[in-house]
Specification:
Layout (H helix, E strand, L loop, with lengths): L1 E5 L5 H10 L3 E5 L8 H5 L4 E3 L24 H17 L3 E4 L1 H9 L4 E2 L2 H5 L12 E7 L4 H6 L3 E6 L4 E2 L6 E7 L4 E6 L8 E4 L12 H14 L8
Parallel strand pairs: 1-2, 1-3, 3-4, 4-11
Antiparallel strand pairs: 5-8, 6-7, 6-9, 9-10, 10-11
Length: 233
């Protein structure tokens, strides 16, 4: 049993260390390597979409700006959207973290807030290059996230300046920050669908992996991928 995990541009060792801590084998899918990654994905029981650079704005009907031109990685965007489509086709569990959650929303034709400080007057960026911001979230009862965490409120880390705006088709918010920013998403109707959760925080960056917003997330993901039956592997 193993999961696929897409390669991020920074702090990727935090993800792999997190998975190793919980004894989960993984296959790294890197857009910069030859091949499309589908073959490797076929050998995995789930997939994790990681954080990283902003998603190219034209993918969600927004405009690039002179200040941000050239800072995107459209090759990674296309690569991961293809993987996401294949994962949905196979109905395998999916965990989408930070940028991964935003990509999930874009996949379902949702939109993103281009810059939280400029457009919403709130700051969710890290407080220093090596220190994430911390803030509280309110978790909605009756959601899968509430079931997983068993909490109505939690403190999470924060290292982003974009966020989900208009929800993608068939998705609901399962938590929001105290300033109203969507912090997690999932299917509204989970009937006959695979496990799917998107979270804006970084569970792999907690100093204490026993924290429910880290531990409960990965343990539930492992439980879900253990149910997947692979063919011809």
């Amino acid at each position: 049993m193993k999961t696929a995990i897409v390669k991020s541009e920074s702090k990727f060792d935090r993800y792999t260390g997190w998975l190793e801590n919980f004894g989960l084998s993984f296959e790294v899918l890197d857009h910069s390597e030859s091949g499309d990654g589908i073959g490797k994905l076929e050998e995995c029981s789930g997939i994790i979409f990681t954080g990283g650079v902003d998603i190219y704005p034209e993918l969600y009907c927004d405009w690039d700006t002179p200040e941000t031109k050239g800072t995107y990685n459209p090759e990674r965007d296309g690569y991961e959207l293809k993987l996401m489509g294949k994962a949905f086709e196979r109905k395998i569990p999916m965990l989408c973290i930070c940028r991964g959650m935003q990509l999930l929303n874009v996949f379902y034709r949702g939109s993103l807030i281009f810059d939280l400080e400029e457009m919403r007057g709130t700051n969710h960026r890290k407080v220093a290059p090596t220190q994430d911001r911390l803030h509280y979230i309110n978790i909605y009862g009756g959601t899968m996230l509430h079931e997983i965490l068993g909490l109505e409120h939690a403190e999470v880390n924060s290292s982003h300046h974009q966020a989900v705006d208009r929800l993608g088709e068939g998705l609901i918010a399962s938590s929001r920050s105290e300033d109203g920013i969507i912090e997690s998403i999932e299917f509204a109707d989970k009937t006959d669908k695979s496990f799917l959760i998107g979270i804006q925080w970084h569970p792999e960056r907690f100093a204490d992996f026993k924290n429910p917003v880290s531990k409960n997330i990965i343990e539930r993901f492992i439980e879900e991928i253990s149910k997947v039956k692979l063919q011809n592997v």
